Amino acid sequence: MKKLLIRILQRLLNRLFLDYIDEQKKINLRLEKIHIDLGKLQSKANIQKSSLNLSENGFSVFSQWDEDGIIQFIIYKIPEIPRIFIEFGVENYTESNTRFLLLKDHWKGLIIDGSEEYINSIKKTELYWKTKLIAEYAFIDADNIETIFAKNNFSGDIGILSVDIDGNDYWILKKITSVRPVVVIVEFNNLLGIKKSLSVPYDPKFIRHDKHYSGLYFGASLKAFYDLLNIRGYSFIGCNEINNNAFFVLNEFAGRFQVLTLEEGYSYNWVRESRNSIGDLTFLDNRLERLEEIKDLDFLDLESNQLIKIKDYIDYI
After folding, report:
1. With 61 labelled, which of 40, 102, 143, 168 sits at a CA distance of 20 to 30 A?
2. Which superkingdom heads the taxonomic lineage of this protein's source (predicted)?
C-alpha cells in the first residue's frame, strides 16, 4: 500500500510539474507577442519622426541593443529588399539581430552557431516549425562558410547579412562571395578606433576569451570593415547607439540614407565588459587602461600586411 501511494504521489507531482512547464511556455509566448506588438508600434512611431539618424530609430525587442529598430528603419526605406537573412553567432537565438524580422515580417533565414546544444534547442521550439528558419550547427571558419551557404541553398541576392562571432569576423566576411546582401551588419572592435585598418590574425580555431582573458582581443576595427565593404560597393550609414555594430548598404540604395564618414559615424563605446585572469569583470572604462590589457598582443595591419603590437600605436589608435 505504501509503495502504491508513493507511485501515485510521484505521478501527481510529475503531472503538476509538466503542467507548470506548459503554463510557463504559454506565458512566455504571450509575453513574446506583447513585445512584438510593442515593436510594431515603435516602428510606426519612428517612421513618423522621419529621422535619417540610425540611432534615433533604434529600439530592442530581441536584439542586444537597439538593432531591431535600426533594421526596421532600413527595410522601410528599401521596401523591395529580398526578404532573406543570414546571421551567425546567434547562440540560442533568444537575443539576435534577426529574430524580430523573422516573427514580425516573416522573412526566411539561415542562422549558424558553433554550439550543437544551442542549435538543437532552437530546433525543438515552436519557432522552428512555425517559421521559415534554418538553423545550422557549425564552427565557422574561412574555409567552410561558403559550403554552409551552399548546403542550405542560400546564394545570390539576400536582404541582410549579420556577422558577429567575436573573432575572425573580418576574415569570414572577406571570404563570402556567393551571397549579395543589400545590408551588411558587422560587430567591430570599438577599442581599435578608426585610424588604422586592423584585425586579429586569422586563426580558424579563434575563441575570444580563450585568446585573452580580458575579452578585449577580438575582431577588427571599423576601418577594416569600411575599407573591405567600400571596395565591394557598400556605403557606411552608421552604428547602433553603443557603437559596436556598423551598418552598410549597397551603393545603389545609399541615396535613401545619410551616408557617413568614419569620423561622423564612430564614437567611443562605454560598455565595461573587460575581465581579469579569473574571469571577473574589471569594469575598465578608460580607453588607455583597456588598451594596456592587450598592448602586447598581435594585430594585423591590413594596409601594410604586417603584424603590429598595440603598445607601439596606442597614441595613434
Report:
1. 168
2. Bacteria
Burial of 247 (0-12, 13-18, 19+ CB in 10 A): buried
Q: What pTM does this model have?
A: 0.89
Residue type, 165: I
Cβ(298)–Cβ(201) under 8 Å? yes
Q: What is the pLDDT of residue 312?
A: 84
For residue 242, pLDDT beyond 80: yes
Single-letter code of the amino acid located at 75: I
**Which are the contacts of 277, defined by CB distance < 8 A and separation ≥ 6?**
213
CA angle 273–276–277, rounded 5-degree value: 140
**In which residue are the cell numbers 541576392 written?**
157
Which residue from 30, 36, 59 is spatially nearest to 105, judged by alpha carbons? 36
Residues 6+ apart with CB under 8 A from 83: 105, 106, 107, 108, 159
CA distance 297 to 124: 41
At 133, list the grid cell: 528558419
- List Cα–Cα distances, 105 to 71, 77, 207, in angstroms: 11, 15, 33
CA proximity to 299, closest of 212, 213, 240, 187 = 212
Tell me how far CA of residue 190 lies from CA of 223, 249, 273, in angstroms: 10, 20, 12
Q: Rounded to whole angstroms, how far apart are CA atoms 276 and 209?
A: 11
pLDDT, residue 19, reads 46
- Predicted pLDDT at 21: 53
Cell of 219: 575582431
The predicted structure's pLDDT at residue 194: 95
Helix spans in the chain (H)? 2-49, 67-77, 99-100, 116-123, 126-130, 145-151, 169-175, 208-211, 222-231, 262-265, 287-293
Q: Which helix (H) or strand (E) holds 235?
A: strand 234-239
- Cβ contact 66:241 at 8 Å: yes
